[in-house]
UniProtKB/TrEMBL annotation:
Its main location: membrane. It catalyses: (S)-dihydroorotate + a quinone = orotate + a quinol. The gene is pyrD. Its EC number is 1.3.5.2. This is Dihydroorotate dehydrogenase (quinone). Belongs to the dihydroorotate dehydrogenase family. Type 2 subfamily. Pfam families: DHO_dh. Its cofactor is FMN. Residues 50-342 form the Dihydroorotate dehydrogenase catalytic domain. GO terms for biological process: 'de novo' pyrimidine nucleobase biosynthetic process; 'de novo' UMP biosynthetic process. Catalyzes the conversion of dihydroorotate to orotate with quinone as electron acceptor.
Length: 349
């Protein structure tokens, strides 16, 4: 029904506008008595084979919603009814910002992908904290943090520290986003020494807390082997809990969309099916060359259970969906979990 009827209607409108419309609709239907419990029964797969404990958290299943979908934490309670094992909010910055000028979100229908240059548009960390205080779900919530676009280079670490401090009591884990191609002045965040300095600063805050929260690093799919080796070194040196592989890509190779159409779209991060193989290769490289020293969350191009299983076999412990969720609909989460449980994949890989 979703792909045959609902998706064609949604895809007839501007992607960003329909995103906001969908949020409003989901909010509305969840106010109807019993809708949330009905959706949960339809989409949630409960099976001990899906459960695992990673970095001190008990995941009821390995399928999460990636950051960017609910960046302001407006819908995480409602979205938990669709069977997710965890939901990541953000990317959030210290101060609210509009992001890049519109139009900034584009569908590549034939490629089953998206290009976005949103630019960390969000309502700021204080607004997110207030929403998370009204948390009604027991689904694990992660906080994806970034810097404000207009911050000077000597303020970058302070931006991350401020957001980390404010979110610490209301999220279950953190993701340090250093890899978004849609925010200006990100080059410094690719420097190994700077990444280590940043992570150590966040760890210092973490260690001062009564209860420490897991920290993960989100990386790009376009890194070469030397850069991936440096990521492994940094993760181990900073003693953070894991890596999310991967963010969106700036690579436009092998797309079905014409170069003329791509030129009209312009810059932005590519997600969906076109980045599937790249992100899986990054996962495999990190897992092998770190000797499976830390958990990896696999994200990028997951449109089916088969895609998710490829990532888990490559070395991912958890997976996240975003573009695939938009293209395939909420049944995607259920189908992935059913197949993973059927294969007992988490305990036999």
């Amino acid at each position: 029904m979703y792909k045959a009827i609902i998706r064609p209607i949604l895809f007839a409108f501007d992607p960003e506008k329909i995103h906001h419309f969908t949020f409003g609709f989901i909010k509305f239907v969840h106010k109807i008595p019993f809708v949330s419990s009905i959706l949960s029964r339809v989409y949630t797969v409960k099976d001990k084979k899906l459960e695992q404990n990673l970095f001190g958290l008990n995941f009821k299943n390995p399928v999460g919603l990636a950051a960017g979908f609910d960046k302001n934490g407006e819908l995480f309670n409602e979205l938990s009814a669709f069977g997710f094992g965890f939901i990541e909010v953000g990317t959030v910055t210290p101060v609210a910002q509009e992001g890049n000028p519109k139009k900034r979100l584009f569908r590549l229908k034939e490629d089953r992908g998206l290009i976005n240059r949103m630019g960390f548009n969000n309502k700021g960390v204080d607004a997110l904290v207030e929403r998370l205080k009204n948390r009604k779900t027991d689904t694990i919530i992660g906080g994806n943090i970034g810097k404000n676009t207009q911050s000077d280079s000597d303020q970058y670490i302070e931006d991350y520290k401020q957001t980390f401090e404010k979110l610490h009591d209301v999220v279950d884990y953190f993701v340090v986003n250093i890899s978004c191609p849609n925010v200006g002045s990100m080059a410094k965040l690719q420097d190994k020494d700077f990444i280590l300095e940043l992570l150590n600063a966040l760890q210092a805050i973490n260690h001062s807390k009564k209860k420490q929260k897991p920290i993960l690093l989100k990386i790009a799919p376009d890194l070469n082997d030397q850069q991936l080796d440096e990521i492994i070194e940094v993760v181990l040196a900073a003693k953070i809990q894991g890596v999310i592989a991967s963010n969106t890509s700036t690579n436009r190779a092998d797309l079905k969309m014409s170069e003329a159409e791509l030129d009209k779209i312009g810059n932005g991060g590519l997600s969906g099916q076109p980045v599937k193989d790249r992100s899986t290769k990054v996962i495999a490289y990190l897992a092998k060359n770190s000797n499976h020293a830390f958990p990896i969350i696999g994200v990028g191009g997951i449109h089916s259970a088969k895609d998710a299983i490829e990532k888990i076999k490559a070395g991912a412990s958890l997976v996240q969906v975003y573009t695939g969720f938009i293209y395939e609909g909420p049944k995607l989460v259920k189908s992935i979990n059913k197949e993973i449980a059927k294969l007992n994949l988490l305990h036999t890989k």
